[in-house]
Amino acid sequence: MKITKKAQVLLLTAMGFAVYFTSYLTRVGFNTMMIEISKAEGYAETQLSLAITAAFISYGLGQLFSGYLGDRFNPTRIIIIGLSVSATVNFSMPFAPNPTFMALLWGLNGLAQSFVYPPTIKTMSTYLTAENYPNAIMTVAIAGNMGTLAVSLLSPLIINLSGWRTAFFCFGGFAVAVIVIWTVYSACLQKKYGCPEAPAKARDTSGDSSMGFLKPALACGLILIMIFIFLQGFLKDGVNTWMAPYISDVFKMSSEKSILSTMLFPIISACSIFLTTFLRKKVIRSELLLAMIYFSTFLVCLGLLVILRDLYLPSVILLTLMTVTMTSANYVTITFVPIRFAKYGRVSTMVGILNSCTFVGSALSAVGLAYVKTGLGWNAVFILWAALAVIGISAALFPMRKLKKMESNE
Fold it and tell me: How far is it, in rounded angstroms, from Cα 34 to Cα 346?
């Protein structure tokens, strides 16, 4: 049963925001506290960075499993499990005896965090109508940006007052409060509107649910969509990661000032999510076409960057816009492509598959771009970015037509 009352829609949206905000609050805390932990405990930053790498890998791989489980079992309970494990890890981090143990714990946290987003999308798409879903999921996506900002602001404040261990306790405590509220709310929600696992189970009784899902997915160009999203992840995090080093290299600025140049990104990214949702809902109904337009905008910004590369402010603005275009392309693709497979009961599975492609691209960009930049210089990086953007546009052409045909046949 779908929720139609405005108050109930707003309540579910608010709960989704709280869940995803908490996910970021308990996921990125270590990143912001790593330098302080290094100073306070005497650990090398290279040792501590293993924890971030472990979480990154486990989060990306975990998307595949959580997506599948979100369609097989009750997604609201999977969210509870994921946040509960994450809260436990945050409570445990202050007691970790060494960087190796921290890496193991934070890797577990990455896996637990992967059990939040796909089931959240599944829950929202199950209970909300096609009219209400875009605005609701937009709000949930913005929660990620707000969570990142909250961690960036709260971590230094708490550390100055009481140390880095207290910061982990605070984030874990907040997560516990949200878990309790979500548990009570989801129980009431299912009592009134039914359990979201029912549609998927109903389809499984036919015995050919998997094939019924794979055939149309492959026919619509799933492999090409995966390549498209892989390139989004590569370009999104490639530009975001290397923006500060580029500014430092080209304009000979200190690392602190270079990092400050990137601080507005979460706010601009949140604004871009508003714009993207509006465009997808009111102007461009094809999410892949909209993503291709963002890729084209990326190319335009890259071209202007090459021309204006000696000017500091234009360079910062263009690099920020390049990151935002890829973030927007990734958001619209991962958010709206999966719901086209709702009738097969595989929304969460699709989210998991596609989101994992983003993280594979992100992981390879860190290594690949480091090699290209060191060996061949920034010009080679720009050429690589341009080539990958063109490949991305080409890859999206076939599935765009197929998904449009699927929509017209429904």
Answer: 38
Of 301, 299, 331, 295, the C-alpha closest to 318 is 301
- Cβ–Cβ < 8 Å for 304, 319: no
| pLDDT tens digits for range 216-255 | 677 777 889 999 999 998 898 778 766 766 776 777 655 4
In the Cβ-directed half-sphere of 243, how many Cα atoms lie within 13 Å?
Answer: 30
The pTM score is: 0.76
CB neighbours of 136 closer than 8 A, spacing ≥ 6?
9, 12, 13, 16, 124, 128
Task: Report residue 299's pLDDT band, with 50, 70 and 90 as the boundaries.
Answer: very high
| CATH 1.10.1790.10 at 214-409, yes or no | no
- pLDDT, residue 366, reads 67
296 three-state secondary structure: helix
d(CA 29, CA 342): 34
Task: Residue 382: count other Cβ atoms within 10 Å of its Cβ.
Answer: 17
The closest alpha carbon to 146, from 25, 298, 9, belongs to: 25
| Helices 378-409/347-376 angle, 10° precision | 160
- Tokens 């892949």 belong to residue: 288
- 45-59, 104-118, 121-135, 373-387, range with greatest mean pLDDT: 104-118
- State the Cα torsion 193-195-199-200 to the nearest 10°: 160
Count of CB atoms within 10 A of residue 41's CB?
Answer: 13
Exposed, middle or buried: residue 284 (CB in 10 Å: 0-12, 13-18, 19+)?
A: middle
The tokens for 293 are 């337009």
Residues 355/299, Cβ–Cβ less than 8 Å: no
Per-residue pLDDT, 205:
42
Decide if 6-205 and 214-409 have a common fold.
Answer: yes
- Give the type of residue at 8: Q
Domain assignments of the chain as residue spans, ordered by start: 6-205, 214-409
* Residues in Cβ contact with 5 at an 8 Å cutoff, skipping those fewer than 6 apart: none
Per-residue model confidence (pLDDT) at position 258? 45
- Choice between 226 and 70, residue whose per-residue pLDDT is larger: 226
**CATH classification number, 6-205, choose in 1.10.10.60, 1.10.630.10, 1.20.210.10, 1.20.1250.20:** 1.20.1250.20
Residue 213 confidence (pLDDT): 62
DSSP string across 252-286? ---HHHHHHTTTTHHHHHHHHHHHHHHIIIII---
